[in-house]
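3.2 Worked example (two chains)
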Amino acid sequence: AASRTAKVPIVVHLDHASDTRDIEQAVEAGFHSVLADFSHLPLDENLVLTKEVVSLAHASNVEVEAEIGRLAGAEDGALPVQDVEARMTDPELAGIFVKKTKVDLLAVCIGNVHGRYLPGPVALDLTRLASIRQSVDEECMLALHGVSGLSTEIIKACIRRGVCKLNVNTEVRQAYVQSLKSPDKPGEKPRDLSQILSDGQSAMEFAIEAKMKIFGSDGKAV
């Protein structure tokens, strides 16, 4: 309902779905796009299932995002270098995968993680990202998950190398939680529950607006 009444274009997206029944229901419900995430499976199984989803979704003009490589999460801790490399998206395989499945978007794994990054500098494999962009059909867009915590410099470097969909979650949720924890201002009337929740929403909006400016996607609604 919100997407229909909004004054700007909105996409309703099903993220990280690994059950084809959920994807079918999302397509039937009118979602604009889905992430068919079978990255936990062997590549050949990922390819077959993704191809089936593409056939289903495209019949209803629904875009499909897929992922190869395996995005880590903060809960994984410090992985050995060889394990990190094994999880990353292989540029050559990415090109083959996109050609065979006809996906609209490909989520890449170049050292990015879900949740919070471990303390210290964050280093993404930008050379790998550039190779993926060269290998993948130009009509397929690249997506980067785990953008929360990345510096503006790294984000813009990824955009220059072809990323056009960036997923931010942790920073937005943190803004909301921090707002809820904020004490009332001295001398002002204590906030009631509705005002506290409204302030939390405003904090999320501010965080999102800041990211949109970094991404270069602000002021482009038509």
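3.2.1 Second chain
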Amino acid sequence: MSNSAPRDIQQEELLEMEDQGKRYGSHTEENNEPDGCATCCRYILIFFSWVLMFFTFPFCLCASIKIIQEYERAVIFRMGRISGGAKGPGLFFILPCTDEIRIVDQRTISFDVPPQEVLSKDSVTVTVDAVVYFKVFNPVMAVVNVENYQGSTRLLAATTLRNILGTKTLAEMLSNRDTVSAEMQANLDVGTDPWGVKVERVEIKDVRLPLQLQRAMAAEAEASREARAKVIAAEGEQNASRALKEAADIMNESPSALQLRYLQTLNTISAEKNSTIIFPLPIDMLKGFGSK
């Protein structure tokens, strides 16, 4: 159920986009209705096209029958005007003399945004590149409203990348890439909607810093690590001295404990293979010399 729900939503969106394309095509045809004289000439030329096809049959089938793949849509211009909405997929028939066909690919297209030098909000120059994924949801708008929807989307993506990153600080670029990508996708989607293009995803690939800034950041990070290491070492020394003090207080309360510790140290030294010579000396004797 969880996997089928997103698929149903995607199918509904695709159907809605196709309906929008059909409505846009019919609306364009209604707004561009020719006058009576132009309509008469149009029908005469169409009639002569049919006559020419009749006399050249079956050789004309090579230019009249078109096959559109599942992922493609065809926009037909008859006498310079859109004939209905987008056609396809499948097989359909056109008039070779009066019809002009434009095929639009509706698969997702990806492209790399060229590296852009951007001045951040905190006056740091960085080089940023990204990747953009988009698809055509309305073939009629993609053909009629813009000359080259792919090239226009590429140029708009580069401009939008510079504009958005110019309002961000360096820390925001490095830590909030998802937020920057989502904001860039929303802006691109608004700009490409009149062209019949849907921007599906935008990803920031790399943020390259100047070499001097990299060295400064590395020195700052190294100094911070050394400061933390010194603090940790000082805390360790403090804890060790506190433990030694507690151990000395316990041994001071019981003289036999100090003697046992002395014997344990002798056992540890004798277990190792070394040439150390140990002369046991009673502690009371040392106290006698100390009193004199």
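3.3 Remarks
The two ends are 95 Å apart (CA to CA).
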